[in-house]
Write a structure and sequence with these properties.
The chain is of the alpha+beta class. Among the domains are: 100 residues, Zinc/RING finger domain, C3HC4 (zinc finger) (Herpes Virus-1, 2-Layer Sandwich), CATH 3.30.40.10; 127 residues, Apoptosis, Tumor Necrosis Factor Receptor Associated Protein 2, Chain A. The protein has 10 helices and 17 strands. The strands form 5 sheets. Strands 8, 10, 11, 12, 15 and 16 form a 6-stranded mixed β-sheet that branches. The structure holds zinc ion (ZN) (4 copies). One zinc ion (ZN) binds next to loops. It catalyses: S-ubiquitinyl-[E2 ubiquitin-conjugating enzyme]-L-cysteine + [acceptor protein]-L-lysine = [E2 ubiquitin-conjugating enzyme]-L-cysteine + N(6)-ubiquitinyl-[acceptor protein]-L-lysine.
Protein backbone atom coordinates (compact mmCIF):
# COMPACT_ATOMS: atom_id res chain seq x y z
CA UNK A 1 0.00 0.00 0.00
CA UNK A 2 2.82 2.37 0.79
CA UNK A 3 4.30 1.69 -2.62
CA UNK A 4 0.96 2.61 -4.11
CA UNK A 5 0.83 5.90 -2.26
CA UNK A 6 4.20 6.95 -3.51
CA UNK A 7 3.02 6.08 -7.01
CA UNK A 8 0.01 8.23 -6.47
CA UNK A 9 2.00 11.23 -5.38
CA UNK A 10 4.32 10.82 -8.31
CA UNK A 11 1.23 10.75 -10.44
CA UNK A 12 0.18 14.13 -9.13
CA UNK A 13 3.51 15.60 -10.00
CA UNK A 14 3.46 14.09 -13.46
CA UNK A 15 0.00 15.30 -14.09
CA UNK A 16 1.37 18.78 -14.38
CA UNK A 17 2.86 17.66 -17.67
CA UNK A 18 -0.27 15.77 -18.54
CA UNK A 19 1.08 12.35 -17.85
CA UNK A 20 -0.93 10.00 -15.77
CA UNK A 21 -0.01 6.75 -14.22
CA UNK A 22 -2.13 4.32 -12.45
CA UNK A 23 -2.90 0.71 -12.72
CA UNK A 24 -5.53 -1.85 -12.26
CA UNK A 25 -4.73 -5.31 -11.17
CA UNK A 26 -6.21 -8.43 -12.59
CA UNK A 27 -8.22 -8.45 -9.43
CA UNK A 28 -9.84 -5.22 -10.42
CA UNK A 29 -12.18 -6.97 -12.80
CA UNK A 30 -14.28 -8.06 -9.94
CA UNK A 31 -13.52 -5.31 -7.51
CA UNK A 32 -13.06 -2.15 -9.43
CA UNK A 33 -16.53 -0.94 -8.67
CA UNK A 34 -15.73 0.65 -5.38
CA UNK A 35 -12.13 -0.21 -4.67
CA UNK A 36 -9.02 1.63 -5.66
CA UNK A 37 -6.84 -0.26 -8.08
CA UNK A 38 -4.68 -2.75 -6.35
CA UNK A 39 -1.77 -4.71 -7.65
CA UNK A 40 -0.74 -7.97 -6.18
CA UNK A 41 1.53 -10.16 -8.20
CA UNK A 42 1.02 -12.82 -5.59
CA UNK A 43 -2.74 -12.76 -5.78
CA UNK A 44 -4.34 -15.52 -7.67
CA UNK A 45 -7.62 -16.75 -8.94
CA UNK A 46 -9.23 -13.63 -10.34
CA UNK A 47 -12.40 -14.36 -12.20
CA UNK A 48 -11.04 -13.65 -15.61
CA UNK A 49 -13.86 -15.12 -17.64
CA UNK A 50 -16.57 -13.40 -15.66
CA UNK A 51 -17.29 -11.15 -18.57
CA UNK A 52 -18.93 -13.90 -20.52
CA UNK A 53 -21.71 -14.18 -18.03
CA UNK A 54 -22.54 -10.55 -17.66
CA UNK A 55 -24.05 -9.53 -20.99
CA UNK A 56 -26.91 -12.01 -20.64
CA UNK A 57 -27.72 -10.50 -17.27
CA UNK A 58 -27.90 -7.06 -18.79
CA UNK A 59 -30.11 -8.50 -21.51
CA UNK A 60 -32.36 -9.93 -18.90
CA UNK A 61 -32.72 -6.58 -17.26
CA UNK A 62 -33.69 -4.95 -20.49
CA UNK A 63 -36.21 -7.62 -21.11
CA UNK A 64 -37.76 -7.04 -17.75
CA UNK A 65 -38.09 -3.39 -18.69
CA UNK A 66 -39.76 -4.34 -21.87
CA UNK A 67 -42.00 -6.76 -20.14
CA UNK A 68 -43.26 -4.17 -17.73
CA UNK A 69 -44.63 -2.25 -20.70
CA UNK A 70 -46.30 -5.50 -21.52
CA UNK A 71 -49.91 -5.99 -22.39
CA UNK A 72 -50.84 -3.50 -25.07
CA UNK A 73 -48.17 -4.97 -27.34
CA UNK A 74 -49.22 -3.35 -30.57
CA UNK A 75 -48.44 0.27 -31.10
CA UNK A 76 -47.89 -0.74 -34.69
CA UNK A 77 -50.05 0.15 -37.57
CA UNK A 78 -50.53 -3.54 -38.15
CA UNK A 79 -53.76 -3.62 -36.16
CA UNK A 80 -54.93 -5.87 -33.34
CA UNK A 81 -54.71 -9.21 -35.14
CA UNK A 82 -51.01 -8.88 -35.76
CA UNK A 83 -50.16 -8.10 -32.15
CA UNK A 84 -52.40 -10.93 -30.95
CA UNK A 85 -50.49 -13.29 -33.17
CA UNK A 86 -47.21 -11.85 -32.02
CA UNK A 87 -48.21 -12.46 -28.42
CA UNK A 88 -48.45 -16.17 -29.23
CA UNK A 89 -44.75 -16.00 -29.88
CA UNK A 90 -43.84 -14.70 -26.44
CA UNK A 91 -41.18 -16.67 -24.65
CA UNK A 92 -42.59 -18.01 -21.36
CA UNK A 93 -39.27 -17.39 -19.62
CA UNK A 94 -38.19 -13.87 -20.63
CA UNK A 95 -41.33 -12.58 -22.39
CA UNK A 96 -39.31 -11.53 -25.38
CA UNK A 97 -40.42 -12.88 -28.74
CA UNK A 98 -39.53 -16.33 -30.01
CA UNK A 99 -38.13 -15.64 -33.48
CA UNK A 100 -36.90 -17.98 -36.22
CA UNK A 101 -35.39 -20.50 -36.12
CA UNK A 102 -38.24 -21.58 -33.85
CA UNK A 103 -37.77 -24.81 -31.95
CA UNK A 104 -40.47 -26.51 -29.90
CA UNK A 105 -40.66 -29.23 -27.29
CA UNK A 106 -42.41 -32.49 -28.13
CA UNK A 107 -45.72 -30.98 -27.00
CA UNK A 108 -45.31 -27.89 -29.13
CA UNK A 109 -44.26 -25.31 -26.49
CA UNK A 110 -41.88 -22.63 -27.63
CA UNK A 111 -38.96 -20.96 -25.90
CA UNK A 112 -36.70 -18.25 -27.29
CA UNK A 113 -33.21 -18.94 -28.54
CA UNK A 114 -31.70 -16.85 -25.72
CA UNK A 115 -33.34 -18.82 -22.95
CA UNK A 116 -33.09 -22.20 -24.59
CA UNK A 117 -29.39 -22.88 -23.92
CA UNK A 118 -29.95 -22.10 -20.24
CA UNK A 119 -32.72 -24.67 -19.82
CA UNK A 120 -32.63 -28.40 -19.25
CA UNK A 121 -36.26 -29.01 -20.08
CA UNK A 122 -39.32 -27.28 -21.45
CA UNK A 123 -40.32 -24.51 -19.00
CA UNK A 124 -44.00 -25.19 -19.68
CA UNK A 125 -44.30 -28.99 -19.49
CA UNK A 126 -40.89 -30.10 -18.24
CA UNK A 127 -40.50 -32.46 -21.20
CA UNK A 128 -37.13 -32.65 -22.98
CA UNK A 129 -36.47 -29.63 -25.20
CA UNK A 130 -35.56 -31.68 -28.27
CA UNK A 131 -34.72 -30.15 -31.60
CA UNK A 132 -38.06 -30.04 -33.35
CA UNK A 133 -38.37 -27.08 -35.67
CA UNK A 134 -41.75 -25.43 -36.10
CA UNK A 135 -41.76 -24.19 -39.68
CA UNK A 136 -45.37 -23.07 -39.63
CA UNK A 137 -44.72 -20.73 -36.71
CA UNK A 138 -41.62 -19.46 -38.46
CA UNK A 139 -43.71 -18.56 -41.46
CA UNK A 140 -46.19 -16.80 -39.23
CA UNK A 141 -43.35 -14.93 -37.52
CA UNK A 142 -42.03 -13.85 -40.91
CA UNK A 143 -45.31 -12.12 -41.74
CA UNK A 144 -45.55 -10.19 -38.46
CA UNK A 145 -44.12 -7.00 -37.06
CA UNK A 146 -42.75 -7.01 -33.55
CA UNK A 147 -42.43 -4.08 -31.20
CA UNK A 148 -38.90 -3.09 -30.30
CA UNK A 149 -37.98 -4.42 -26.88
CA UNK A 150 -37.27 -0.88 -25.71
CA UNK A 151 -40.89 0.00 -26.31
CA UNK A 152 -41.29 0.77 -22.60
CA UNK A 153 -38.42 3.26 -22.80
CA UNK A 154 -40.06 5.12 -25.65
CA UNK A 155 -39.24 3.35 -28.91
CA UNK A 156 -42.40 3.20 -31.00
CA UNK A 157 -41.00 1.10 -33.84
CA UNK A 158 -42.33 -2.25 -34.96
CA UNK A 159 -40.03 -4.40 -37.01
CA UNK A 160 -39.94 -7.50 -39.14
CA UNK A 161 -38.30 -10.32 -37.23
CA UNK A 162 -35.22 -10.24 -39.46
CA UNK A 163 -34.60 -6.56 -38.62
CA UNK A 164 -35.43 -6.63 -34.95
CA UNK A 165 -32.12 -7.67 -33.43
CA UNK A 166 -30.12 -5.26 -35.54
CA UNK A 167 -32.40 -2.37 -34.70
CA UNK A 168 -32.35 -3.13 -30.98
CA UNK A 169 -28.57 -3.13 -31.01
CA UNK A 170 -28.70 0.44 -32.34
CA UNK A 171 -31.95 1.54 -30.75
CA UNK A 172 -31.53 5.01 -29.23
CA UNK A 173 -33.77 3.93 -26.37
CA UNK A 174 -31.55 1.04 -25.34
CA UNK A 175 -30.12 1.89 -21.92
CA UNK A 176 -26.41 2.46 -21.69
CA UNK A 177 -24.35 0.03 -19.63
CA UNK A 178 -21.42 1.00 -17.49
CA UNK A 179 -18.49 1.30 -19.93
CA UNK A 180 -15.86 -0.05 -17.56
CA UNK A 181 -14.24 -3.15 -19.01
CA UNK A 182 -14.70 -6.47 -17.32
CA UNK A 183 -18.45 -5.98 -16.92
CA UNK A 184 -18.30 -6.34 -13.17
CA UNK A 185 -20.50 -3.27 -12.78
CA UNK A 186 -24.13 -3.86 -13.64
CA UNK A 187 -25.16 -0.24 -13.80
CA UNK A 188 -27.45 0.79 -16.66
CA UNK A 189 -29.06 4.10 -17.43
CA UNK A 190 -29.44 6.97 -19.87
CA UNK A 191 -26.41 8.49 -21.57
CA UNK A 192 -26.52 11.68 -19.48
CA UNK A 193 -26.09 9.58 -16.36
CA UNK A 194 -23.01 7.69 -17.50
CA UNK A 195 -20.44 10.31 -16.45
CA UNK A 196 -22.08 10.98 -13.07
CA UNK A 197 -22.08 7.22 -12.53
CA UNK A 198 -18.40 6.89 -13.43
CA UNK A 199 -17.45 9.77 -11.15
CA UNK A 200 -19.46 8.39 -8.26
CA UNK A 201 -18.87 4.66 -8.56
CA UNK A 202 -15.45 4.43 -10.20
CA UNK A 203 -13.51 7.09 -8.36
CA UNK A 204 -10.21 5.36 -9.01
CA UNK A 205 -10.30 6.15 -12.72
CA UNK A 206 -8.08 9.08 -13.55
CA UNK A 207 -9.54 11.83 -15.66
CA UNK A 208 -7.29 14.04 -17.77
CA UNK A 209 -8.20 17.04 -19.86
CA UNK A 210 -6.77 17.74 -23.30
CA UNK A 211 -6.82 16.27 -26.76
CA UNK A 212 -3.25 15.05 -26.59
CA UNK A 213 -2.20 13.17 -23.50
CA UNK A 214 0.10 10.39 -22.40
CA UNK A 215 -1.41 7.33 -20.87
CA UNK A 216 1.21 5.63 -18.74
CA UNK A 217 0.31 2.07 -17.85
CA UNK A 218 2.40 0.76 -15.02
CA UNK A 219 3.45 -2.80 -14.30
CA UNK A 220 2.57 -4.12 -17.71
CA UNK A 221 4.47 -7.31 -16.96
CA UNK A 222 1.96 -8.48 -14.39
CA UNK A 223 0.79 -11.94 -15.35
CA UNK A 224 -2.79 -12.75 -16.22
CA UNK A 225 -5.68 -10.56 -17.28
CA UNK A 226 -5.10 -6.95 -16.38
CA UNK A 227 -6.69 -3.74 -17.52
CA UNK A 228 -5.85 -0.09 -17.30
CA UNK A 229 -8.49 2.56 -17.74
CA UNK A 230 -8.40 6.31 -18.03
CA UNK A 231 -10.82 9.08 -18.93
CA UNK A 232 -9.88 11.88 -21.29
CA UNK A 233 -11.95 15.03 -21.65
CA UNK A 234 -11.71 17.20 -24.75
CA UNK A 235 -13.94 18.90 -27.32
CA UNK A 236 -16.68 18.93 -24.72
CA UNK A 237 -16.81 15.13 -24.66
CA UNK A 238 -15.47 12.37 -22.47
CA UNK A 239 -13.48 9.48 -23.84
CA UNK A 240 -12.46 6.29 -22.12
CA UNK A 241 -9.12 4.73 -22.94
CA UNK A 242 -8.76 1.08 -22.25
CA UNK A 243 -5.65 -1.04 -22.31
CA UNK A 244 -6.31 -4.70 -21.70
CA UNK A 245 -3.94 -7.55 -21.36
CA UNK A 246 -5.55 -10.89 -21.88
CA UNK A 247 -4.98 -14.33 -23.29
CA UNK A 248 -7.39 -14.79 -26.14
CA UNK A 249 -5.34 -17.81 -26.98
CA UNK A 250 -4.07 -19.67 -23.99
CA UNK A 251 -0.44 -19.11 -23.23
CA UNK A 252 -0.32 -16.18 -25.63
CA UNK A 253 -1.01 -12.91 -23.81
CA UNK A 254 -1.71 -9.83 -25.92
CA UNK A 255 -2.38 -6.17 -25.28
CA UNK A 256 -5.45 -4.47 -26.71
CA UNK A 257 -5.81 -0.71 -26.64
CA UNK A 258 -8.96 1.07 -27.69
CA UNK A 259 -10.80 4.36 -27.16
CA UNK A 260 -14.52 4.73 -26.68
CA UNK A 261 -16.57 7.89 -26.42
CA UNK A 262 -19.11 8.45 -23.70
CA UNK A 263 -21.63 9.24 -26.38
CA UNK A 264 -23.90 7.79 -29.02
CA UNK A 265 -22.66 6.00 -32.16
CA UNK A 266 -23.64 9.18 -34.03
CA UNK A 267 -21.42 11.33 -31.81
CA UNK A 268 -18.59 8.83 -32.21
CA UNK A 269 -18.56 9.53 -35.96
CA UNK A 270 -17.34 13.07 -35.31
CA UNK A 271 -14.02 11.95 -33.86
CA UNK A 272 -10.89 9.99 -34.58
CA UNK A 273 -8.18 8.87 -32.24
CA UNK A 274 -4.54 8.01 -32.58
CA UNK A 275 -2.56 5.76 -30.28
CA UNK A 276 1.18 5.89 -30.49
CA UNK A 277 3.87 3.87 -28.83
CA UNK A 278 7.05 5.79 -29.03
CA UNK A 279 10.48 5.21 -27.64
CA UNK A 280 13.82 3.52 -27.99
CA UNK A 281 13.99 4.87 -31.55
CA UNK A 282 10.82 3.10 -32.58
CA UNK A 283 7.30 4.22 -33.25
CA UNK A 284 4.06 2.31 -33.61
CA UNK A 285 0.92 4.21 -34.56
CA UNK A 286 -2.69 3.16 -34.74
CA UNK A 287 -5.57 5.35 -35.87
CA UNK A 288 -9.26 4.64 -35.79
CA UNK A 289 -12.67 6.03 -34.99
CA UNK A 290 -13.68 5.75 -31.35
CA UNK A 291 -16.40 3.31 -30.43
CA UNK A 292 -19.51 4.51 -28.74
CA UNK A 293 -19.95 3.11 -25.26
CA UNK A 294 -23.34 1.99 -26.58
CA UNK A 295 -21.45 -0.56 -28.68
CA UNK A 296 -18.81 -1.26 -26.08
CA UNK A 297 -15.29 -2.50 -26.74
CA UNK A 298 -15.70 -6.23 -26.20
CA UNK A 299 -16.41 -6.91 -29.86
CA UNK A 300 -13.52 -4.68 -30.95
CA UNK A 301 -11.17 -6.61 -28.71
CA UNK A 302 -12.58 -9.96 -29.81
CA UNK A 303 -12.08 -9.10 -33.45
CA UNK A 304 -8.77 -7.36 -32.81
CA UNK A 305 -10.33 -4.20 -34.24
CA UNK A 306 -8.07 -2.04 -32.09
CA UNK A 307 -4.38 -1.60 -31.39
CA UNK A 308 -3.07 -5.08 -30.69
CA UNK A 309 0.47 -5.94 -29.71
CA UNK A 310 2.17 -8.71 -27.88
CA UNK A 311 4.37 -8.51 -24.80
CA UNK A 312 7.58 -8.50 -26.80
CA UNK A 313 6.45 -5.32 -28.59
CA UNK A 314 5.35 -3.85 -25.27
CA UNK A 315 8.79 -4.57 -23.90
CA UNK A 316 10.46 -2.70 -26.76
CA UNK A 317 8.55 0.45 -25.85
CA UNK A 318 8.36 0.14 -22.11
CA UNK A 319 10.61 1.49 -19.47
CA UNK A 320 10.98 -0.56 -16.30
CA UNK A 321 7.64 -2.24 -16.91
CA UNK A 322 5.82 1.03 -17.59
CA UNK A 323 4.35 1.64 -21.01
CA UNK A 324 3.48 5.12 -22.25
CA UNK A 325 0.81 5.44 -24.92
CA UNK A 326 0.28 8.81 -26.56
CA UNK A 327 -3.40 9.36 -27.12
CA UNK A 328 -4.60 12.04 -29.50
CA UNK A 329 -8.26 12.72 -30.12
CA UNK A 330 -9.21 14.79 -33.12
CA UNK A 331 -12.43 16.13 -34.51
CA UNK A 332 -13.42 15.14 -38.02
ZN1 LIG B 1 -36.73 -16.28 -23.57
ZN1 LIG C 1 -43.32 -28.30 -23.37
ZN1 LIG D 1 -36.10 0.54 -30.65
ZN1 LIG E 1 -20.04 1.21 -13.33
Amino acid sequence: MSVRRSDASRCLRLRAVRIARWRFSRESRSRRVSFPPRVGPGQKGWPMRKRASSPPRAEQQRKRNKMSSGGGGGGSSGGGDSSDLASLLECPVCFDYVLPPILQCQSGHLVCSNCRPKLNCCPTCRAPLGNIRNLAMEQVANTLKFTCKYNASGCALSLACGDKAEHEEQCPFRPYSCPCPGASCKWQGPLEQVMPHLLAAHKSITNLTGEDIVFLATDINLPGAVDWVMMQTCYGHNFMLILEKQEKFEGHPQFFAVVQIVGSPKEAKNFAYKLELNGNKRKLTYEAAPRSIHEGVAAAINHSDCLVFDPSIAKLFSDHGNLGINVTISQI
